[in-house]
Write a structure and sequence with these properties.
By secondary structure, the protein is α/β, with parallel strands linked by helices. Helix content is about 35%, strand content about 25%. The chain is built from twelve helices and 19 strands. The strands form four sheets. Strands 6-5-14-15-16-13-17 form a seven-stranded mixed β-sheet, sandwiched between helices. Helix 6 runs antiparallel to helix 7. Bound molecules: flavin-adenine dinucleotide.
């Protein structure tokens, strides 16, 4: 049994703690924030590959109770309301489980409860600053002057990971994607009955004249939406107060032939817009007793819809790679984990970047692209439905770890 120090208690950190516990080790999770991040963040979608990985951890049932099923997507142009294409969001698992949209906080809360239930300790207010390595293990040193000794350090510390820097100080910085992210949820009964022109569970994605956005309805009648305005050097919408944010966004969706202006107008708390980033590739994911999981190693653009699912896949692969291992074979096991995960993770990052590209057009290019997009989507439709099977039909067999 190894003592595993997991740095960060986001989706990747909690899932890793649970997977390492399943693998027979003793994980402790150290989080920089002073308290759990309940209620923080917007919403995300867990795709079917994420559910498959959760199933391995015994958590598919609990996760399937969160949020609502979103198996379908439709693409439209905002300028003329033209329908471009319908997609399935990854299909379903054999038991019928589909992609689900949920608040980050719900998913986080479920994983945190589960970690507690399994006796995994989470320590708050512990910001990792450095590590001291020796033949006998590794010491994690925190900003408050304390330190802990263990067998490995798992860097689940997100996009600006300190563990990544400790593994390789030459690791590149995150790559900016010139899109902002914002969104909100309109309670049931606020919008006029029948106004929302999409059935529950279908995401309506719109290439608007000035901004890409998506809205959907849940079975309770709430309207969930996000928008990806272009990031411009001349403005910083993250500094706007809530009222000014509404004015700014209303201007961006005005004139589109959709109901987005009404949705924005009806949203009480619009999420503060923030910038998005990803990583093309980093030189190493692991060194000796240090290893990366989740956004720390391979952040994908939110346009991939895969960040949480990939973090959970990492956790499962790491857990099974370390199952039954003794401390003297850690570095081989971590190298094997990187081998298994790197190609897939990097393909997903590039896929996310390609998904984001058509959203990041100025108004002039938008006009040209509105002429081209219908043909592009007709081409995609012709290429068969299994286009994205490599993303969604991914299964990690827990019992074949270590080449058995
Ligand atoms: C707008 C947006 C939309 C998204 N939509 C989707 C989606 O549709 N589907 C999807 O699957 N994913 C989506 N994602 C991505 C997803 O939320 C993340 O990729 C996923 O949750 C993995 O995060 P993580 O745990 O690796 O990192 P994080 O959530 O960033 O967690 C890192 C944790 O580490 C802590 N930490 C950082 N540094 C230290 C330190 N030095 N010491 C101790 N603790 C530290 C932080 O406080 C934090 O709690 C989206 C992301 C964004 C931004």
């Amino acid at each position: 049994m190894m003592n595993c120090m997991v740095i960060g208690s986001g989706i990747a950190g909690l899932s890793s703690g649970i997977a390492l516990h399943k693998a027979g080790h003793r994980p402790v999770i150290f989080e920089a924030y002073g308290a759990p991040s309940d209620g923080i963040g917007g919403f995300l979608t867990v795709a079917v590959n994420g559910f498959d990985a959760l199933d391995t951890l015994g958590l598919k049932g609990a996760a399937a109770k969160l949020g609502f099923s979103t198996p379908l997507m439709s693409m439209y142009l905002g300028s003329n309301g033209k329908h471009l294409m319908d997609f399935e969001f990854g299909g379903s698992l054999p038991d019928g489980t589909t992609a689900r949209t949920m608040t980050r906080s719900e998913l986080y809360g479920m994983l945190r409860e589960e970690a507690h239930r399994r006796g995994i300790r989470i320590v708050y207010g512990k910001l990792l600053t450095t590590v001291e390595e020796s033949h006998h293990g590794v010491r994690a040193v925190f900003r408050d002057g304390t330190s802990e000794h263990g067998d490995i350090v798992v860097g689940a510390d997100g996009l600006h990971s300190q563990v990544r820097r400790l593994i390789d100080p030459t690791s590149p910085a995150p790559r900016n994607i010139p899109l902002l992210n914002t969104g909100g949820i309109v309670p049931a009964g606020v919008l006029a009955p029948g106004l929302v022109d999409v059935e529950p569970g279908r995401m309506k994605m719109v290439f608007g004249k000035r901004c890409f956005y998506c809205y959907m309805q849940d079975p309770e009648g709430r309207t969930w939406w996000f928008a990806n305005p272009l990031q411009r050097s001349s403005e910083d919408p993250s500094t706007l107060d809530s009222g000014a944010r509404k004015v700014w966004l209303s201007k961006l969706v005005a004139g589109d032939r959709t109901i987005m202006a009404a949705i924005v107008g009806a949203t009480k708390d619009i999420i503060r817009p923030y910038t998005t980033s990803d990583f093309p590739s980093i030189p190493r994911w692991q060194r000796e007793r240090l290893v990366l999981v989740g956004d720390a190693g391979h952040a994908a653009s939110p346009s991939s819809g895969q960040g949480a699912s990939m973090a959970i896949e990492d956790a499962v692969t790491l857990g099974r790679s370390l199952q039954g291992l003794q401390p003297d074979s850690i570095s081989e096991a971590l190298a094997r984990y990187e081998d298994e995960r790197r190609t897939r993770a990097e393909l997903v990052v590039e896929w996310g970047r390609r998904n984001a590209a058509p959203k990041a057009r100025g108004q002039f290019k938008r006009v040209i692209e509105d002429l081209v997009l219908p043909a592009v989507f007709r081409g995609i439709a012709r290429k068969s439905e299994d286009n994205f099977d490599w993303v969604y039909r991914h299964h990690i067999e827990w019992d074949t770890a270590n080449g058995e």
